[in-house]
Specification:
The chain is an alpha/beta fold. It has one domain: Vaccinia Virus protein VP39 (Rossmann fold, 3-Layer(aba) Sandwich), CATH 3.40.50. It is 26% helix and 19% strand. It has five helices and eight strands. Strands 1-7-8-6-5-2-3-4 form an eight-stranded mixed sheet, sandwiched between helices. Helix 2 runs parallel beside helix 3 and helix 4 crosses helix 5.
Length: 210
């Protein structure tokens, strides 16, 4: 994998962006990671975006805050009480929806352009979600789900689009790391850990593929 150089960072990151932070991570990206995601989105201004893994809607809120007006964000999460079709990781099962979790974007002006999809990503029909300019992959962290979600992200992405993965961490999330390490020789991937504070983000930029 490549690392983002200073000159490349100027091409992909906005200097001005909005970010909604939180006190503790608890399943969300860190404040530094949210800042990088928000900066990427603010620069790219995706008209159509998709997120695998809504959780409590904090990342969705940050993506939507930095999209251009009249844009749309689809965000997918398991339905309440739904059992995953593929294997999952013990550490993340505590985050599966067992109750109606209050989402950050509910009741905000952005709610109208954030569309919640309640479904197992293994069953997602990507033909309904084409031409996505930005896709964020942060669903279930097993190898099987990362493979599934990533393959679907590549099916959905628009020409010139961006895919960002969260949790490239060999110790904490080996399934995600294994998938991205296997993908790296086939696609040019960039680690974003040199931008701002240390982070676990990896990105694919369609326009930088040879």
């Amino acid at each position: 994998m490549d690392f983002i150089s200073e000159s490349l960072a100027e091409c992909i990151l906005a200097k001005s962006y909005s970010v909604l932070c939180h006190g503790r991570t608890n399943g969300n990206p860190s404040t530094g990671e949210l800042s990088v995601i928000s900066s990427l989105v603010a620069k790219a201004k995706p008209a159509r975006a998709f997120e695998f893994g809504t959780f409590n809607g904090l990342t969705a809120m940050n993506i939507a805050m930095n999209q251009k007006e009249k844009s749309i964000l689809y965000t997918l999460n398991l339905s309440l009480g739904e059992k995953p079709l593929f294997s999952t990781v013990d550490e993340e099962r505590k985050y599966f929806p067992r109750f109606d979790r209050k989402s950050y974007f509910l009741g905000t002006p952005l709610e109208g352009r954030i569309i919640q999809i309640s479904q197992d990503s293994a069953l997602l029909d990507t033909s309904k979600y084409k031409e996505m300019d930005f896709v964020f992959v942060d669903g279930a962290h097993s190898y099987e789900y990362c493979l599934n979600d990533s393959q679907k992200a590549f099916e959905m992405i628009s020409p010139g689009g961006i895919i960002v993965w969260h949790d490239y961490d060999k110790d904490a999330w080996p399934g995600v790391s294994r998938y991205l390490d296997e993908l790296a020789p086939k696609r040019r991937l960039f680690r974003l850990c040199t931008i701002g504070s240390p982070n676990s983000l990896v990105a694919f930029f369609e326009r930088f593929q040879s």
